[in-house]
Structure formats: structure tokens, C-alpha cells
Design a protein that fits this description.
The protein is of the alpha/beta class and 430 residues long. 41% of the residues lie in helices and 14% in strands. It is built from 14 helices and 15 strands. It has an 8-stranded mixed beta sheet with strand order 4-11-10-9-8-5-6-7, with helices on both faces. A 3-stranded antiparallel beta sheet has the order 12-13-15, covered by helices on one side. A two-stranded parallel ribbon has the order 1-14. A hairpin with an 8-residue loop joins strand 12 and strand 13. The longest helix is centred in the C-terminal third of the chain and has 30 residues. The structure holds 4'-deoxy-4'-aminopyridoxal-5'-phosphate. The site of 4'-deoxy-4'-aminopyridoxal-5'-phosphate (PMP) has 13 residues, from helix 5.
């Protein structure tokens, strides 16, 4: 296939190419493929890495832990001390700054927003839901399920661009300084979903220090991929809680994390980390919601994951499985599209996604054509608030779940669809 910049081709060259690509696409459609790259799920091989979790507790295991808590019984609404210590190591916070939640960090994010709307935060004079309008800043492309929480709960989303080292902070600072209705910002600060970006120290500091019109403004810091490195030289993220304390805004941040992509998604444990004042405030509210979390699941995670070093080793095994998949995607993209100047993509050091930008106005059509050829991708626009990508160009690639062979086929089909749609677009522009 053509290996030069398609933007320099004349009409007859483009027409000729389009015919060839279209014929190839018809042939691919006839193969009746059925491949799914729509969500960032671990593969079965990755899940196998954690099978030891199922055997690690048995009827002979000690079930009394620190403070003589019987893990089988009610109690410990904010989690076992052992679990808090483990997450304390991962997130570099102390054990009093943590509440251990249930099986999903998305649930605790949803609940944190809901509680703020119903009851306010420790710094609120009015519950957010009693105000005429509540807005959240949404650095985009971002995580569609964050945006879904806002949409469900009636929070207006304000799109902010993602730059190479995090959200466009000039815009963020300007907006939060002047608008009291802006109560929050969504952040995936490390190996972001979908762009794989890690926020720079400067961005972390500016978020912690910035002047906000709302004095109960909160950063929703979803550190979902904090230990999910793909290389031996991992990105390093500055500690936001410390930065907020140093900036005299100790209550500004809610940090979320989980073991979903460390052990088993749906059967892991999640945490909220924040200032002690926030934690104590929220702990009381949670105590009306549950008499205690699943401490046996916490216990088996503590026995299985042990400490930060063991987690690092465990995550290396994940990386050994998924790095070749990321490499494969990048290799095919480079080979098929590298010189054509019709798409660009990131090369992340960790996380679960590769973010690809087509020419403006092409992503929806590419995703549609890929789907009709049997390759399911995350819907175009999903990485933006209200599902609307203003440039209609971003496509999220989730390489972890398919096998290497499936992945190669899926990415080749994706590249073909990008070439086809781009050629058509360039022809229309002639
Ligand atoms: N946050 C981000 C950024 C994610 O990508 C995901 C999973 N796709 C989650 C949260 C969901 O985490 P959990 O399973 O803990 O609810």
C-alpha cells in the first residue's frame, strides 16, 4: 500500500487508491470476522496470574488480623489496617488517609460525587445538588465512565484539552478562578485513559495550588493505572495529596484506585485516599451504608499481594503478556500508516490503551466501517463529554484482551478503514 503523504496526492492518484482500498475492504468484509477491541479488559492469560488468590485463604488460615479483628464478621467499615497499609504503600499515603471500599473504584467515585451532591463535602456550606448549577471540568480525551457519572447526576461537563503533560492548565486555572459552579475536575493522572499520559510535576503542583472560586472544589484523581507499567523505566507521578497539603488545600483531592487490573476485575478491592478530615467525614456517612466491607476479600488480597515489591513483580508478569500486544499495534500502525500523514498515535509507557487520532471528521466513519467488517471498537466520541468529539478524530484502541493474532488482524482492518475513509475525505477536499 502507498507509503507517502496522501495529502500530496492528486485526484486521479487518490481515486485509483480508493478503488483498490474499497476492493480490499469488500474482501475483508467477506471474511466474517468477529473481533472486539472495545473495552480495556485483561486477557484470560493475565487473569491466570492471580489464580493463587483463590487458594490463599482456606479453613486453616488465620482470620484474626491486627487489632484482633475477626475478618469473617461485621465491622471495620473503613477496611482492615493491613489493606490500608498495602494501599498506603502503593499510593504513598498514610493508613489514616484511606478508606477501603468494595470491588469497584467506579462505585466509590460515583458515591463520592453523589454524596457531595446530596450532603456536600466537609468544606461545603450547601450540598452541591441544592445549587442552581454544578459543573465539572473534563480533560478530554478522557474516561467515558467518568463522563457517564456526570451525565447521570446532572452535572454539566466542560471540556478541557489534554496536552502532552496533562490538562491545559492555563484554561483550567482561568475557569476555576472565575466560576463558582465548577466543583470538580476528573483526572486519570498516570498512563491516562486513553492517551497514556502521565501528568508532569508542574501540572500536579498547579492543580494543588490554583485559586478556585468554589472553596469546596475537588479533584477526582483516578489513579487507576498507578502500578501498570509497560517498561522498566516507569513514569513517575508526583504525590497530589502532599502537593495539596503543601499548598494549604489539604482537602482538595479525592484519590481513587483499585486492584481491578492487578488481580480480578469485579472481584478486587478499591480505595479512596484523601486528607484525614475528608476521610473521617466520609467514614461516618459510609457507616450508614454498610456494617462492614468484604474483609475476607481484603485479607486474601493482602496475603497474595503482600507488599509493594511483590506487586511490582506481579505487574511485571502482566507487562510481559501485554507489552508484545502494544508493540504489535504500534508496529502495524507504523507500517500501514506511518508515512501517510492521515493518523497519529501515542506510545504509552503503561496503562491499557493506545489513543489514535485520524484526520478531522473521520473517526465515526472509521469505527462504523470497522464494525461492519467485524472489528468492534469503542464508539467514536466516547472519550469526550456527551459522546461528542468536536473534531471527530479520536479512537481508543484497547489491545489487552484479544490474542496477538486477533489483534494483528483487527489493527490491519482498522488501518484499512482509516486509509479508506481518509482517501475519500481527501478526494472530497480536492
Ligand atoms: N478508572 C479508569 C481510568 C479505568 O480505566 C477503569 C477501568 N476501565 C476504572 C476506573 C474502573 O475501575 P474499577 O474496576 O475499580 O471500578
Amino acid at each position: 500500500m502507498a507509503l507517502t503523504d496522501l495529502n500530496t496526492w492528486n485526484k486521479s492518484e487518490l481515486s485509483e487508491l480508493y478503488k483498490k482500498l474499497d476492493a480490499k475492504y469488500t474482501e475483508v468484509k467477506g471474511r466474517n470476522l468477529s473481533l472486539d477491541m472495545s473495552r480495556g479488559k485483561p486477557s484470560a492469560e493475565q487473569l491466570d496470574l492471580s489464580m493463587g488468590l483463590l487458594d490463599i485463604l482456606n479453613s486453616d488460615s488465620p482470620i484474626h488480623v491486627e487489632e484482633s479483628i475477626d475478618a469473617r464478621n461485621y465491622g471495620s467499615v473503613d477496611g482492615l489496617i493491613e489493606t490500608k497499609k498495602l494501599f498506603g504503600q502503593i499510593l504513598d499515603v498514610n493508613q489514616h488517609e484511606i478508606i477501603v471500599g468494595g470491588n469497584s473504584s467506579l462505585t466509590i467515585m460515583h458515591d463520592a460525587v453523589s454524596r457531595s451532591l446530596l450532603l456536600g463535602t466537609v468544606d461545603s456550606t450547601t450540598p452541591w445538588g441544592k445549587l442552581p448549577k454544578v459543573k465539572f471540568l473534563c480533560p478530554s480525551p478522557g474516561y467515558d465512565r467518568h463522563f457517564a457519572i456526570c451525565e447521570l447526576l446532572g452535572i454539566e461537563m466542560v471540556t478541557v484539552d489534554m496536552l502532552e503533560d496533562g490538562p491545559d492548565m492555563d484554561t483550567v486555572e482561568e475557569l476555576v478562578k472565575n466560576d463558582e459552579a465548577i466543583k470538580g475536575i476528573w483526572c486519570v493522572p498516570k498512563y491516562s485513559n486513553p492517551e497514556g499520559i502521565t501528568y508532569s510535576d508542574e501540572v500536579v503542583d498547579r492543580l494543588a495550588k490554583m485559586e478556585t472560586k468554589a472553596n469546596d472544589f475537588r479533584i477526582f484523581w483516578d489513579d487507576a493505572y498507578t502500578v501498570h507499567h509497560l517498561t522498566d523505566e516507569p513514569d513517575v507521578l508526583k504525590n497530589i495529596l502532599t502537593a495539596c497539603k503543601d499548598a494549604n488545600h489539604p482537602n482538595r483531592v479525592f484519590i481513587f484506585a483499585s486492584t481491578s487490573k492487578v488481580t480480578f476485575p469485579g472481584s478486587g478491592i478499591s480505595v479512596l485516599a484523601s486528607s484525614e478530615e475528608n476521610i473521617n467525614f466520609i467514614k461516618k456517612q459510609i457507616a450508614t451504608q454498610t456494617i462492614g466491607p468484604d474483609k475476607l476479600n481484603q485479607l486474601r488480597h493482602v496475603h497474595f499481594l503482600k507488599d509493594l515489591e511483590t506487586i511490582k513483580q506481579h505487574m511485571k508478569k502482566h507487562a510481559e503478556i501485554i507489552k508484545p500486544k502494544f508493540d504489535m499495534v504500534l508496529e502495524v500502525l507504523e507500517k500501514q500508516l506511518g508515512k501517510q500523514n492521515i493518523a497519529s498515535w501515542n506510545e504509552p509507557n503503561g496503562g491499557y490503551f493506545i489513543s489514535l487520532n485520524t484526520l478531522d471528521g473521520c473517526a465515526t466513519e472509521v469505527v462504523k466501517l470497522a464494525s461492519e467488517a467485524g472489528v468492534k471498537l469503542t464508539p467514536a466520541g466516547a472519550t469526550f463529554p456527551y459522546g461528542k468529539d468536536p473534531s471527530d478524530r479520536n479512537i481508543r484502541i484497547a489491545p489487552t484482551f484479544p490474542t496477538l493474532n486477533e489483534l494483528q488482524t483487527a489493527i490491519e482492518v482498522l488501518c484499512l478503514c482509516i486509509q479508506l475513509v481518509s482517501t475519500n475525505k481527501l478526494l472530497q477536499n480536492q
